[in-house]
User: Fold this.
Amino acid sequence: MTTQNWPAPKRPGVPMFPERDGWHVIDARSGGITVLTYWNGKEWSAGDCVRGLNSSPEWWRYNGAVLSATQINEILAAERERCARLCNDIGAQASLRISELSNRTLGALLAQPEKGRMDADYECAANIRNLGAAP
Assistant:
C-alpha cells in the first residue's frame, strides 16, 4: 500500500484543507467502495467503515474535498488576489526602473517602454480583481 495519493504524502490520512471541517470523498483500496466521510478538523468521524482512516490511511485513496459554490468562489478570489498582487509588484519594479532611468541623459527615451509595461501591469491587476465569481 502507498500513501502517495494523499494531498501531503508526508501526512497520510490528513485531507486537503485540514484546518477546516468538511466532507471528503475517499475510496477503499480493497472492495472498490467509495465513501463520503467527514473530517472534523482533527480526525475522520463519519461511520464505522472509515474509522480505519485515523489509524491506517494507507488502505484508503483520497479523491478530494467536497466544496460548496461559496468555498470555490473564495478559493478563486484568493488566487486572483495573489495574481493581482504579483502584477502590482511587477508594475512597482517598472516604476523604480523609470525613476532610475529618468536621472540619466537618455533616460526619458529609455523610460518610455518601462512606463508602458508599468501601465499594463497595473491594468492586468485591475482586470484580474474584476473577474468576479466562477461561472
Remarks:
- The beta strands are 22-28, 34-39, 60-65.
- The mean pLDDT is 75.
- Residues 69-129 form one domain.
